[in-house]
Amino acid sequence: MHLFEISSCADLPEEVGKCIRHVLSLGEIPAGLFEVPGSAIKAIGIRYVTKDSSAPVIAENHQRVVDVHVVVQGGDGVAVVAEGDAAPSGDYCDKDDYQLFDVAGELELQELTAGHVAVFEPYEIHVTGRAVGEPGDVVKVVLKVPAELFEG
């Protein structure tokens, strides 16, 4: 996992930066899957209330995409989980490129606040949507970036 302030995302691929700028220019973040004009990157608008530490922990990873989480409002507790602390909770979904995991043990949460970006590499088992402190509202966009955009 890599955490960035939006203003210091120059190391990200140009197309990813373009998508982030587009997302931030929107007056209202659409819910669900939406297109970024001129890009093949998928964008998903998400709104939720973060979960406290008593809620079960579900994690995920991907094989073909890099997840780029852009928080627009609120604070989101995020973490990467070691493979030994996660057990697959179902089969890998090739169509949508994800694997879900049940997580045991404590999470080392980092708070991703508005104006920040988290980048989760393929195969990184990650958790989002956790409260750091009191649960609160989050508005964010997840960009599903083909991994090859990060190569070279």
Q: State the low-pLDDT regions, or none.
A: none
Number of helices: 1
Question: Oligomerization state of this entry?
Answer: single chain
Rg is: 15 Å
Bulk shape: globular
Based on DSSP secondary structure assignment, what is the total number of beta strands? 12
- Provide the structure class: mainly beta
Helix residue percentage? under 10%
CATH topology (level 3) name:
Jelly Rolls
Average pLDDT level: 94
CATH architecture: Sandwich
Structure report:
- There is one protein chain.
- This protein has a single domain, classed as Jelly Rolls (Sandwich).
- Helices cover 8% and strands 44% of the residues.
- It is built from one helix and twelve strands.
- A hairpin with a 6-residue loop joins strand 2 and strand 3.
- It is globular and about 40 Å long.
